[in-house]
TrEMBL record:
Protein name: O-methyltransferase C-terminal domain-containing protein
Record's keyword annotation contains Methyltransferase: yes
One MF term in the entry's GO annotations: S-adenosylmethionine-dependent methyltransferase activity
InterPro entries assigned to the protein according to its UniProt record, in alphabetical order: COMT-like, COMT_C, SAM-dependent_MTases_sf
Keywords: Methyltransferase, S-adenosyl-L-methionine, Transferase
Limits of the O-methyltransferase C-terminal domain: 4-169
Organism annotation: Digitaria exilis
GO biological process assignments: methylation
Pfam families: Methyltransf_2
Domain of life: Eukaryota
Ranges that cross the membrane: none
Length: 176
């Protein structure tokens, strides 16, 4: 997963960098060893980045970095921040668990008017062109992975369902 961050996050910063503008703090929930947060903190030095993951993962966190590592359980609580970031996390879980995670995200951030946001980086089934072979290959690869871990890939209606059930009133999709 850390290798994936090294690959995809430069692309995210380049194509969707606006999402991180105006944020002063961000917690990368279930962020593993923090590869994604390291890239965000480097690209946006005004963002104070932290990573939440289980204690046995945080035990292997790199040292000598500005990024703060926090051991904890996202189903219990999420440390407060301007923004919460979830990369390849939600597709590991069923709807009930995702709603619980999103409710905890909502508690961790300020209101939308005060700049609070939850940023989810994940697959959206049905997005993009089915005639694009690379796009299809990527979706199939993720389908195989999800079958292995018993997770779920979601289309827009399924994303909307969990987002609204967690108490959020709207959302914005950025495709790339
Ligand atoms: C698929 S990996 C994603 C890691 C990271 N977001 C990335 O993209 O590199 C899922 C992560 O969820 C973490 N995780 C699983 N259950 C968790 C929990 N209850 N609280 C916090 N983290 C959890 C795992 O330890 C793992 O690092």
């Amino acid at each position: 997963m850390d290798a994936d961050s090294g690959f995809i996050m430069d692309f995210v910063v380049d194509k969707c960098g606006d999402v991180f503008q105006g944020i002063s703090s961000l917690v990368d929930v279930a962020g593993g060893l923090g590869g994604a947060t390291q890239v965000i903190a480097k690209a946006f030095p005004h963002v104070e980045g932290s990573v939440l993951d289980l204690s046995h993962v945080v035990a292997y966190a790199p040292t000598g970095t500005e990024v703060k590592y926090i051991a904890g359980d996202m189903f219990e609580s999420i440390p407060p921040a301007n923004a919460v970031f979830l990369k390849w996390v939600m597709h590991d879980w069923g709807d009930a668990e995702c709603i619980k995670i999103l409710k905890n995200c909502k508690k961790a951030i300020p209101s939308k008017e005060k700049g609070g946001k939850v940023i989810i980086l994940d697959i959206m089934v049905g997005a993009g062109s089915l005639s694009d072979q690379k796009h299809m290959e990527t979706q199939v690869l993720f389908d195989l992975f999800i079958m292995f871990i018993n997770g779920a890939e979601r289309d827009e209606q399924e994303w909307k369902n969990i987002i609204l059930k967690a108490g959020f009133s709207d959302y914005k999709i950025i495709l790339f």
